[in-house]
Description:
The chain is an alpha/beta fold. It contains 13 helices and eight strands.
Amino acid sequence: MTVPDSSASGPVGPEGQAGQKGRVSPNGRAGPDGSLGSTGRSGPSGSSDLPGSPGPAGSGGPVRLDGPWTHRDVAANGARFHIAELGEGPLVLLLHGFPQFWWTWRHQLTALADAGFRAVAMDLRGVGGSDRTPRGYDPANLALDITGVIRSLGEPDAALVGHDMGGYLAWTAAVMRPKLVRRLVVSSMPHPRRWRSSMLSDFAQSRAGSYVWGFQRPWVPERQLVADDAALVGRLIRDWAGPRTPEFPDDAAVDVYRRAMCIPSTAHCSIEPYRWMVRSLARPDGIQFNRRMKRPVRVPTLHVHGSLDPAIRTRSAAGSGEYVEAPYRWRLFDGLGHFPHEEDPDGFSAELINWLKDSEPDR
């Protein structure tokens, strides 16, 4: 079984994009219709002069972007994961959301390293520079990816910082492997049980999350995501960002995310977790996962949300504290949308670092 080629450019070529195990290289180049040509161009401008970009795809592609961090791969849970790391000290593992990849944490990587932490941003399974496997996109397995990376980094535990889907998986990992999670920080995502109940019983949240329902169609969402050099990715990021932060998203940042989505099979793998979340609602595995998530989170938790988030409503996220039996802090960023860590990177990083260094976080 191989992962479908979501670039719609025909069979995957010889650049190492698909092996016999159904995995796709993150730095391969897509075909002539879409994503990345041999010059590394992306978007309507055809320019590769992006901030932090290494240039042509052959020198790192749209994933291993230059910066003060170091890129490498680690093995965990039967797959290979790309990470960018910077600094020394207690481990802080950063988990991206949709439709992004590790680069979304570029501001926090430097801020955390300067504050005395070992900051590591990983690409989730199927995204960025990590393996695109044919299966394994249920939240329990994805959470094991995360805890496996912690072990592979040689650390006894980590503070998990997750945004959007990364936040969903951070909640899950804190319940499944609490001994490996020192602290928990979630942005723009309610607890999985809260997410489930809101999507099923709150019409306003169900409408705000209509993209999740749209992902349940076969093949069509993948092709929509990569059409016109992943123009939809740019529209989603712009629509979900708050109106009071003109600095984000700028065209250069959007182009980076569009290029990353155009890597063959990334669109398919990005959508698979959302398909599981809906299709498993009435299946035994989904019911079992929902019951498992009844276990309370017993690590100190910081929950961050943008007051103008159009994808996850504030009242959907705000009820998550009932699932935490530990110090829990709710922080609402006024005027921000779905991406607080990019819309106000200085404010977000300050809140994060102050809380991580607080020896007695308040409830």
